[in-house]
Design goal:
This protein is an alpha/beta fold and 360 residues long. The chain has 14 helices and eleven strands. It binds adenosine-5'-diphosphate and magnesium ion. The site of magnesium ion has 4 residues, from helix 3. It comes from Nocardioides hankookensis.
Length: 360
Amino acid sequence: MIVHEDDLAEAEETYLASLTVAEADGDERTIEAALRPRTLDEVVGQARVRDQLGLVLEAARLRGRAPDHVLLSGPPGLGKTTLAMIIAAEMSSPLRLTSGPAITHAGDLAAILSGMNEGDVLFVDEIHRMARPAEEMLYMAMEDFRVDVVIGKGPGATAIPLDIPPFTLVGATTRAGLLPGPLRDRFGFTAHLEFYEPHELDLIIHRSAGLLGVELEGEGAAEIASRSRGTPRIANRLLRRVRDYAQVKADGVVTIEVARAALDLYEVDALGLDRLDRSVLDALCRRFGGGPVGISTLAVAVGEERETVEEVAEPFLVRNGFLARTPRGRVATPAAWQHLGLAVPAAAPLTEPDGTLFDG
Ligand SMILES: Nc1ncnc2c1ncn2[C@@H]1O[C@H](COP(=O)(O)OP(=O)(O)O)[C@@H](O)[C@H]1O
Ligand SMILES: [Mg+2]
């Protein structure tokens, strides 16, 4: 089943509509398409990945062959889909898009593979969520450009070998650790995307402002960049919300004052924490004395689903050193207390010198 980029959203879980959730929703995909870099040269940041990928593609072009299979891994919103599209564009090859959750049977994959032409790029988003039998079919296709299509059932079933023209698989995953080893090993090149530095986000925001026709001052861009969680998707989204504010409440120009006022209105604070992040920290510190507390209890305390707290808020809070996962539960770090403007209690967890909570 080949799906259009706009429909990929349906195959993914929908998260609460939050400004700082790194996943894209349906409408956002259309806007994103307009902001995506089209060539490797237009990609901002990720210098190492860009150089390595550039080399892989150039070498393939010189040999006149399809490039090796590429695995792109990293958190949402850092540019995996963008790079997949660029790979196809740089090779002047058609791109076929599908996603792990859309491949529920080996037959789904067989149908896609049997329709491939030489040199096509097949992009499988969220590749770790593909059905197991399809995964096995994919190893063989990646290595030998061949699959066995099983016709019939039971003792009468026959496997018909089917040759597939050489193609390039580009897999994207937010959870590289969930990929079975044999599948991971069949990628000739793996790129790990890193969170972006503020000055890189700054460039991305300026570029997007140019494309969207937003008048933007340098300090306004820097303000948005610093609240974007190292994530281009969030930077672009905050830019659009700030633009709305600038048009309605100011003269359309994104100054630092406008950016600050808008982001405060949308409750995205100076470090990029949103209302959910803050209420998690608030509950943890004020109601549970800094923890340790179980994630389910914490979720009830903030009135959210456990999954929302665990998958949306927690990764950012952990990465930024506000919250720690320990065997006994979630614990606030001194930085969390400080960020809430509270004194760090002497008895707070993680202030104990022996650091016993970190074991395990
Ligand atoms: N390196 C980059 N330079 C400029 N814009 C980027 C970059 N990476 C991502 N973006 C922007 O962020 C948005 C999300 O990127 P995307 O490739 O969809 O992320 P992912 O597939 O990893 O979730 C895109 O619309 C694109 O405009
Ligand atoms: Mg994507």
